[in-house]
Amino acid sequence: MPEAYIVDAVRSPVGRKKGSLAHVHPADLGAHPIKALVERTGIDAGLVDDVVWGCCDTIGPQAGDIGRTAWLAAGMPEHVPGVTIDRQCGSSQQAVHFAAQGVMSGTQDLVVAGGSQAMNAIPISAAMFAGAAYGFDSPFQGSKGWDARYGDEEVNQIRAAEMIAGKWGISRAAMEEFSLASHQRAQAAWDAGWFDAEVSPFEGLARDETIRAGTTLEELAALNPVREGGAITAGVASQNCDAAAAMLIAGERAVKEFGLKPRARIHHISVRAANPVWMLTGPIPATQHALAKAGMRVEDIDLFECNEAFASIPLAWMKELNIPHEKVNVQGGAIALGHPIGATGVRLMTTLLGALERTGGRYGLQTMCEGGGQANVTIIERL
Protein backbone atom coordinates (compact mmCIF):
# COMPACT_ATOMS: atom_id res chain seq x y z
CA MET A 1 0.00 0.00 0.00
CA PRO A 2 1.32 3.51 -0.82
CA GLU A 3 2.64 5.50 2.11
CA ALA A 4 1.49 8.82 3.57
CA TYR A 5 4.09 11.15 5.04
CA ILE A 6 4.06 14.18 7.31
CA VAL A 7 6.33 16.70 5.61
CA ASP A 8 6.01 19.39 8.26
CA ALA A 9 3.65 20.71 10.93
CA VAL A 10 3.14 24.07 12.59
CA ARG A 11 0.71 25.68 14.98
CA SER A 12 -0.22 29.01 16.41
CA PRO A 13 0.40 29.77 20.06
CA VAL A 14 -2.67 29.07 22.21
CA GLY A 15 -4.59 32.12 23.35
CA ARG A 16 -6.48 31.84 26.63
CA LYS A 17 -10.08 32.80 27.31
CA LYS A 18 -10.41 36.57 26.75
CA GLY A 19 -6.75 36.53 25.83
CA SER A 20 -4.44 37.76 23.09
CA LEU A 21 -6.24 36.03 20.19
CA ALA A 22 -9.81 36.74 21.32
CA HIS A 23 -10.20 39.55 18.75
CA VAL A 24 -8.97 37.51 15.76
CA HIS A 25 -11.49 36.49 13.10
CA PRO A 26 -11.70 32.66 12.82
CA ALA A 27 -10.68 32.77 9.14
CA ASP A 28 -7.53 34.72 10.00
CA LEU A 29 -6.79 32.38 12.90
CA GLY A 30 -6.91 29.38 10.55
CA ALA A 31 -4.98 31.21 7.85
CA HIS A 32 -1.96 31.76 10.07
CA PRO A 33 -0.58 28.19 10.27
CA ILE A 34 -1.47 27.63 6.60
CA LYS A 35 0.76 30.54 5.58
CA ALA A 36 3.50 29.39 7.97
CA LEU A 37 3.31 25.83 6.61
CA VAL A 38 3.66 26.94 2.99
CA GLU A 39 6.60 29.16 3.91
CA ARG A 40 8.36 26.44 5.90
CA THR A 41 7.99 23.71 3.31
CA GLY A 42 8.62 25.92 0.31
CA ILE A 43 5.93 24.13 -1.67
CA ASP A 44 4.04 25.66 -4.55
CA ALA A 45 0.64 26.13 -2.88
CA GLY A 46 -1.02 25.65 -6.24
CA LEU A 47 0.02 21.98 -6.18
CA VAL A 48 -2.08 21.24 -3.08
CA ASP A 49 -4.99 18.96 -3.99
CA ASP A 50 -7.22 19.78 -1.02
CA VAL A 51 -7.42 21.40 2.39
CA VAL A 52 -9.07 19.15 4.98
CA TRP A 53 -9.87 21.18 8.07
CA GLY A 54 -11.28 20.39 11.50
CA CYS A 55 -13.66 22.75 13.27
CA CYS A 56 -16.69 22.40 15.54
CA ASP A 57 -19.61 24.77 16.16
CA THR A 58 -19.43 26.12 12.63
CA ILE A 59 -21.82 29.00 13.07
CA GLY A 60 -21.35 32.73 12.67
CA PRO A 61 -17.82 33.57 11.48
CA GLN A 62 -16.86 29.88 11.59
CA ALA A 63 -19.66 28.93 9.19
CA GLY A 64 -19.48 28.58 5.41
CA ASP A 65 -16.70 25.94 5.29
CA ILE A 66 -14.01 27.55 7.41
CA GLY A 67 -11.35 25.29 5.86
CA ARG A 68 -11.95 26.87 2.48
CA THR A 69 -12.29 30.36 3.98
CA ALA A 70 -9.04 30.07 5.96
CA TRP A 71 -7.13 28.97 2.85
CA LEU A 72 -8.41 31.98 0.92
CA ALA A 73 -7.79 34.33 3.86
CA ALA A 74 -4.20 33.09 3.78
CA GLY A 75 -3.90 34.43 0.23
CA MET A 76 -3.57 30.98 -1.31
CA PRO A 77 -4.63 29.97 -4.86
CA GLU A 78 -8.37 30.02 -5.49
CA HIS A 79 -8.41 26.76 -7.46
CA VAL A 80 -7.46 24.73 -4.35
CA PRO A 81 -10.62 23.52 -2.55
CA GLY A 82 -11.24 23.04 1.14
CA VAL A 83 -13.59 20.98 3.29
CA THR A 84 -14.47 21.23 6.97
CA ILE A 85 -14.71 18.14 9.18
CA ASP A 86 -16.65 17.79 12.43
CA ARG A 87 -15.80 14.71 14.46
CA GLN A 88 -16.14 16.77 17.60
CA CYS A 89 -12.87 16.93 19.57
CA GLY A 90 -11.16 14.67 17.03
CA SER A 91 -12.00 16.84 14.03
CA SER A 92 -8.48 17.76 12.92
CA GLN A 93 -7.11 14.33 13.80
CA GLN A 94 -9.76 12.96 11.46
CA ALA A 95 -8.65 15.58 8.92
CA VAL A 96 -5.19 13.99 9.01
CA HIS A 97 -6.76 10.57 8.53
CA PHE A 98 -8.75 11.71 5.50
CA ALA A 99 -5.67 13.43 4.06
CA ALA A 100 -3.58 10.31 4.58
CA GLN A 101 -6.27 8.15 2.96
CA GLY A 102 -6.34 10.52 0.00
CA VAL A 103 -2.64 10.18 -0.73
CA MET A 104 -2.55 6.47 0.12
CA SER A 105 -5.31 5.89 -2.43
CA GLY A 106 -3.23 7.58 -5.09
CA THR A 107 -5.99 10.04 -5.92
CA GLN A 108 -4.14 12.94 -4.26
CA ASP A 109 -0.50 13.89 -3.83
CA LEU A 110 -0.39 16.85 -1.45
CA VAL A 111 -3.01 17.68 1.16
CA VAL A 112 -3.02 20.29 3.89
CA ALA A 113 -4.66 18.87 7.02
CA GLY A 114 -5.38 21.03 10.02
CA GLY A 115 -7.93 22.66 12.21
CA SER A 116 -8.88 25.76 14.11
CA GLN A 117 -11.23 26.87 16.84
CA ALA A 118 -12.02 30.42 17.90
CA MET A 119 -13.61 29.65 21.26
CA ASN A 120 -13.73 33.29 22.28
CA ALA A 121 -15.69 34.21 19.17
CA ILE A 122 -17.90 31.11 19.27
CA PRO A 123 -18.08 29.64 22.80
CA ILE A 124 -19.09 25.99 23.28
CA SER A 125 -22.48 27.17 24.47
CA ALA A 126 -23.12 29.10 21.25
CA ALA A 127 -24.23 26.07 19.25
CA MET A 128 -26.64 25.13 22.03
CA PHE A 129 -28.06 28.62 22.07
CA ALA A 130 -28.38 28.50 18.29
CA GLY A 131 -30.37 25.27 18.61
CA ALA A 132 -32.56 26.79 21.29
CA ALA A 133 -33.55 29.50 18.83
CA TYR A 134 -35.20 26.73 16.81
CA GLY A 135 -36.77 25.05 19.82
CA PHE A 136 -34.08 22.45 20.54
CA ASP A 137 -32.28 22.21 23.88
CA SER A 138 -30.13 19.27 22.74
CA PRO A 139 -29.28 17.59 19.44
CA PHE A 140 -31.19 14.47 20.55
CA GLN A 141 -34.44 16.19 21.48
CA GLY A 142 -37.39 14.69 19.63
CA SER A 143 -35.54 11.72 18.13
CA LYS A 144 -37.70 8.61 18.60
CA GLY A 145 -34.78 6.37 17.65
CA TRP A 146 -32.45 7.94 20.20
CA ASP A 147 -35.09 7.82 22.95
CA ALA A 148 -35.84 4.17 22.19
CA ARG A 149 -32.17 3.30 22.54
CA TYR A 150 -30.92 5.59 25.31
CA GLY A 151 -34.07 6.92 26.95
CA ASP A 152 -33.84 10.26 28.67
CA GLU A 153 -30.38 9.70 30.17
CA GLU A 154 -28.45 12.91 30.59
CA VAL A 155 -25.74 13.26 27.95
CA ASN A 156 -23.19 15.58 29.47
CA GLN A 157 -19.41 15.49 29.27
CA ILE A 158 -18.93 16.55 32.90
CA ARG A 159 -21.28 13.81 34.06
CA ALA A 160 -19.33 11.36 31.89
CA ALA A 161 -16.02 12.50 33.40
CA GLU A 162 -17.49 11.99 36.88
CA MET A 163 -18.77 8.50 35.99
CA ILE A 164 -15.36 7.51 34.63
CA ALA A 165 -13.62 8.74 37.78
CA GLY A 166 -16.00 6.62 39.82
CA LYS A 167 -15.75 3.46 37.71
CA TRP A 168 -11.96 3.49 37.57
CA GLY A 169 -11.51 4.56 41.20
CA ILE A 170 -9.80 7.85 40.38
CA SER A 171 -9.84 10.27 43.30
CA ARG A 172 -10.06 14.03 43.12
CA ALA A 173 -6.57 14.19 44.63
CA ALA A 174 -5.19 11.98 41.85
CA MET A 175 -6.78 14.20 39.22
CA GLU A 176 -5.34 17.31 40.83
CA GLU A 177 -1.87 15.77 40.90
CA PHE A 178 -2.25 14.96 37.21
CA SER A 179 -3.38 18.52 36.52
CA LEU A 180 -0.42 19.98 38.36
CA ALA A 181 1.93 17.76 36.37
CA SER A 182 0.37 19.01 33.13
CA HIS A 183 1.11 22.63 34.01
CA GLN A 184 4.60 21.83 35.28
CA ARG A 185 5.50 19.81 32.19
CA ALA A 186 4.20 22.48 29.83
CA GLN A 187 6.07 25.23 31.62
CA ALA A 188 9.28 23.18 31.70
CA ALA A 189 8.93 22.42 27.99
CA TRP A 190 8.58 26.09 27.11
CA ASP A 191 11.48 27.03 29.37
CA ALA A 192 13.65 24.39 27.67
CA GLY A 193 12.69 25.64 24.21
CA TRP A 194 10.95 22.40 23.22
CA PHE A 195 7.94 24.19 21.74
CA ASP A 196 9.89 26.84 19.83
CA ALA A 197 10.13 24.99 16.51
CA GLU A 198 6.45 24.07 16.31
CA VAL A 199 4.94 27.46 17.14
CA SER A 200 4.67 30.33 14.70
CA PRO A 201 4.13 33.60 16.66
CA PHE A 202 0.89 35.39 15.88
CA GLU A 203 -0.62 38.76 16.77
CA GLY A 204 2.21 39.53 19.16
CA LEU A 205 1.81 36.22 20.97
CA ALA A 206 4.86 33.93 20.88
CA ARG A 207 4.06 31.44 23.66
CA ASP A 208 0.99 29.59 24.90
CA GLU A 209 -0.69 31.82 27.45
CA THR A 210 -2.87 29.15 29.08
CA ILE A 211 -0.22 27.66 31.39
CA ARG A 212 -0.68 28.45 35.08
CA ALA A 213 2.91 28.18 36.19
CA GLY A 214 2.23 28.95 39.83
CA THR A 215 -0.54 26.40 40.33
CA THR A 216 -0.40 24.45 43.60
CA LEU A 217 -2.23 21.42 44.91
CA GLU A 218 -3.66 23.59 47.66
CA GLU A 219 -5.20 25.96 45.13
CA LEU A 220 -6.64 23.08 43.11
CA ALA A 221 -8.11 21.50 46.24
CA ALA A 222 -9.88 24.77 47.10
CA LEU A 223 -11.89 24.88 43.85
CA ASN A 224 -15.59 24.04 43.95
CA PRO A 225 -16.76 21.02 41.93
CA VAL A 226 -18.77 21.75 38.79
CA ARG A 227 -21.54 19.37 39.91
CA GLU A 228 -22.66 19.29 43.52
CA GLY A 229 -20.92 16.47 45.37
CA GLY A 230 -18.67 15.72 42.39
CA ALA A 231 -14.91 15.54 41.91
CA ILE A 232 -14.53 17.40 38.61
CA THR A 233 -13.47 21.04 38.96
CA ALA A 234 -12.28 23.63 36.47
CA GLY A 235 -8.76 22.83 37.66
CA VAL A 236 -8.84 19.27 36.30
CA ALA A 237 -10.52 20.16 32.99
CA SER A 238 -9.21 21.44 29.68
CA GLN A 239 -9.34 25.15 28.97
CA ASN A 240 -11.38 27.07 26.42
CA CYS A 241 -8.98 28.84 24.09
CA ASP A 242 -8.15 29.95 20.54
CA ALA A 243 -5.63 28.18 18.29
CA ALA A 244 -5.00 26.68 14.87
CA ALA A 245 -2.59 24.09 13.48
CA ALA A 246 -1.73 22.65 10.08
CA MET A 247 0.42 19.94 8.54
CA LEU A 248 1.36 18.91 5.02
CA ILE A 249 0.58 15.31 4.12
CA ALA A 250 2.32 13.95 1.03
CA GLY A 251 2.27 10.74 -0.96
CA GLU A 252 5.36 8.90 -2.19
CA ARG A 253 5.10 10.35 -5.68
CA ALA A 254 5.03 13.93 -4.39
CA VAL A 255 7.93 13.31 -2.01
CA LYS A 256 10.10 12.10 -4.91
CA GLU A 257 8.91 14.57 -7.53
CA PHE A 258 9.23 17.68 -5.37
CA GLY A 259 12.28 16.61 -3.36
CA LEU A 260 10.47 16.77 -0.04
CA LYS A 261 12.05 15.51 3.18
CA PRO A 262 9.32 14.03 5.40
CA ARG A 263 9.60 14.16 9.17
CA ALA A 264 7.36 11.14 9.81
CA ARG A 265 5.34 8.37 8.22
CA ILE A 266 1.71 7.66 9.03
CA HIS A 267 1.99 4.12 10.39
CA HIS A 268 -1.62 3.51 11.39
CA ILE A 269 -4.98 5.30 11.36
CA SER A 270 -8.27 4.10 12.83
CA VAL A 271 -11.34 5.26 14.71
CA ARG A 272 -13.67 3.38 17.06
CA ALA A 273 -16.65 4.26 19.22
CA ALA A 274 -18.24 3.31 22.53
CA ASN A 275 -21.35 4.24 24.55
CA PRO A 276 -22.31 7.88 23.77
CA VAL A 277 -23.77 8.46 27.23
CA TRP A 278 -20.42 7.57 28.80
CA MET A 279 -19.03 9.59 25.90
CA LEU A 280 -15.37 9.82 26.95
CA THR A 281 -14.30 6.17 27.27
CA GLY A 282 -13.60 5.75 23.54
CA PRO A 283 -9.78 6.02 23.75
CA ILE A 284 -9.61 2.72 25.64
CA PRO A 285 -11.19 0.39 23.04
CA ALA A 286 -9.81 2.55 20.22
CA THR A 287 -6.24 2.15 21.44
CA GLN A 288 -6.71 -1.58 21.97
CA HIS A 289 -8.08 -1.91 18.44
CA ALA A 290 -5.31 0.20 16.90
CA LEU A 291 -2.50 -1.73 18.58
CA ALA A 292 -4.02 -5.05 17.56
CA LYS A 293 -4.58 -3.86 13.99
CA ALA A 294 -1.00 -2.58 13.77
CA GLY A 295 0.43 -5.73 15.38
CA MET A 296 1.97 -3.69 18.17
CA ARG A 297 2.06 -3.62 21.97
CA VAL A 298 2.05 -0.75 24.43
CA GLU A 299 5.76 -1.40 24.92
CA ASP A 300 6.43 -0.69 21.23
CA ILE A 301 5.23 2.90 21.54
CA ASP A 302 7.84 5.41 22.66
CA LEU A 303 5.52 8.36 23.41
CA PHE A 304 1.77 8.82 23.78
CA GLU A 305 -0.59 11.77 23.52
CA CYS A 306 -4.00 11.31 25.13
CA ASN A 307 -6.03 14.49 25.20
CA GLU A 308 -6.69 15.88 28.64
CA ALA A 309 -10.34 16.85 28.19
CA PHE A 310 -10.69 15.99 31.88
CA ALA A 311 -8.00 14.43 34.04
CA SER A 312 -10.09 11.30 34.61
CA ILE A 313 -9.93 10.41 30.89
CA PRO A 314 -6.16 9.83 30.45
CA LEU A 315 -5.92 8.46 34.01
CA ALA A 316 -8.54 5.77 33.28
CA TRP A 317 -6.92 5.08 29.88
CA MET A 318 -3.47 4.68 31.44
CA LYS A 319 -4.85 2.48 34.20
CA GLU A 320 -6.80 0.23 31.85
CA LEU A 321 -3.97 -0.22 29.34
CA ASN A 322 -1.06 -0.13 31.80
CA ILE A 323 0.60 2.86 30.14
CA PRO A 324 3.19 4.68 32.29
CA HIS A 325 2.60 8.38 32.88
CA GLU A 326 6.22 9.19 32.06
CA LYS A 327 5.48 8.34 28.40
CA VAL A 328 2.21 10.28 28.19
CA ASN A 329 1.80 13.99 27.36
CA VAL A 330 5.42 14.61 28.20
CA GLN A 331 5.18 18.33 27.38
CA GLY A 332 1.88 18.86 29.16
CA GLY A 333 -1.63 18.51 27.82
CA ALA A 334 -4.92 20.31 27.38
CA ILE A 335 -5.31 21.09 31.08
CA ALA A 336 -2.31 23.39 30.73
CA LEU A 337 -2.21 24.08 27.00
CA GLY A 338 -5.92 24.34 26.29
CA HIS A 339 -8.29 22.35 24.09
CA PRO A 340 -9.13 24.38 20.96
CA ILE A 341 -11.55 21.66 19.88
CA GLY A 342 -11.21 21.69 16.10
CA ALA A 343 -7.44 22.27 16.24
CA THR A 344 -6.48 19.93 19.07
CA GLY A 345 -5.86 16.84 16.95
CA VAL A 346 -3.17 18.45 14.82
CA ARG A 347 -1.86 20.44 17.79
CA LEU A 348 -1.25 17.17 19.63
CA MET A 349 0.34 15.52 16.59
CA THR A 350 2.62 18.48 16.00
CA THR A 351 3.83 18.30 19.59
CA LEU A 352 4.15 14.51 19.47
CA LEU A 353 6.29 14.71 16.35
CA GLY A 354 8.61 17.25 17.92
CA ALA A 355 8.87 15.21 21.13
CA LEU A 356 9.81 12.07 19.17
CA GLU A 357 12.54 14.00 17.37
CA ARG A 358 13.81 15.47 20.61
CA THR A 359 13.95 12.14 22.46
CA GLY A 360 14.96 9.93 19.54
CA GLY A 361 11.81 7.84 19.82
CA ARG A 362 10.49 5.95 16.83
CA TYR A 363 6.75 5.46 17.33
CA GLY A 364 4.18 7.84 18.78
CA LEU A 365 0.51 7.07 19.43
CA GLN A 366 -2.17 9.74 19.71
CA THR A 367 -5.78 9.38 20.81
CA MET A 368 -8.55 11.53 22.20
CA CYS A 369 -12.09 11.26 23.50
CA GLU A 370 -14.73 12.71 21.21
CA GLY A 371 -18.44 13.51 21.37
CA GLY A 372 -20.68 10.55 20.64
CA GLY A 373 -18.32 8.16 22.42
CA GLN A 374 -15.79 8.18 19.57
CA ALA A 375 -12.00 8.13 19.52
CA ASN A 376 -9.41 8.42 16.75
CA VAL A 377 -6.01 6.77 17.01
CA THR A 378 -2.99 7.70 14.92
CA ILE A 379 0.41 6.01 15.14
CA ILE A 380 3.25 7.91 13.50
CA GLU A 381 6.82 6.77 12.85
CA ARG A 382 9.59 9.31 13.09
CA LEU A 383 11.93 9.27 10.09
Structure description:
The chain is of the alpha/beta class and about 375 residues long. Among the domains are: about 5-125 and about 240-260, Thiolase/Chalcone synthase (Peroxisomal Thiolase, Chain A, domain 1), CATH 3.40.47; about 265-380, Peroxisomal Thiolase, Chain A, domain 1 (3-Layer(aba) Sandwich), CATH 3.40.47.10. About 35% of the residues lie in helices and about 20% in strands. Strands 1, 2, 3, 4, 5, 6, 7, 8, 9 and 10 form a 10-stranded mixed beta sheet that branches. β3 (about 50-55), α2 and β4 form a beta-alpha-beta unit. The longest helix has 20 residues, at about 170-190. The chain is globular and about 60 Å long. The model has no long low-confidence stretch (mean pLDDT about 95). Keywords: Acyltransferase, Transferase.
For the termini, the CA-CA separation is 18 Å
The global form is globular
Largest sheet geometry? 10 strands, mixed
Helix content: 25-40%
Q: What's the CATH H-level homologous superfamily of one domain?
A: Thiolase/Chalcone synthase
Return the CATH architecture of one domain: 3-Layer(aba) Sandwich
Helical/strand content category: alpha/beta
One letter per element, helices H and strands E, the order comes to EEHEHEHEHHHHHEHEHEHHHEE
Work out the helix count.
Answer: 13
**CATH topology title of one domain:** Peroxisomal Thiolase, Chain A, domain 1
Indicate the radius of gyration in whole angstroms.
20 Å
Strand tally: 10
Enzyme class: transferase
Keywords: Acyltransferase, Transferase
Family: Belongs to the thiolase-like superfamily. Thiolase family.
Pfam families: Thiolase_C, Thiolase_N
